[in-house]
Predict the structure.
Amino acid sequence: MAYQSLFYYTDLPKGVVDILEQDLTHFNPELGQSSIGLGTVDTKIRNSETAWVDDEHWIGGFVWHYIQKANRENFLFDIDCIDGNSLQYTSYGEGQHYTWHVDADVTASYKPQAANNRFDISAAASDLVNVSCEKIRKISFSLLLSDPEEYEGGNFQLMDEAGRSHFAPRHRGVVVVFDSRARHRVTKVTKGVRRSIVGWAVGPRWR
């Protein structure tokens, strides 16, 4: 039986995580209000700050190793790369949170235009290009940067298909790898700041 989510205790030395956090501080001026897709901001649903980090940053190779490991040992999905070739540096301060959501579902996929009119050559050509190039999120990941003592609340929670929920470890340096269709949330931070690196591995549309 494959698992919906996996946790990897990377055992990153504290000094390495300190270096990573220090390395990411120059992205702090770029931190801005998080959106919930297509630039829409709704702080009742998602209240956090994010900045984008190119996946050529050395942390990209580190997390890609765990994505490939999880995929090889558990998911066996057809994946190509990290979505947008970017990692999301996310910060949750006091009172901030992200309600239950999924990272991928069919509503985000391309809708064929020639489905009801096979004689529409222009639409058929558009379908061919879009479907051939389309990549969807299949595997999500989160690397926790903060020590448990640095914040209160801010728990990362996942829900399975049966409605059972569980919390990810609050261990600094832990990598959570999970199916992008899984419901998950970050509970409200009540004290301090919770920082993480998150992103998504993409691949061809499901067949």
The chain has a mean pLDDT of 91.
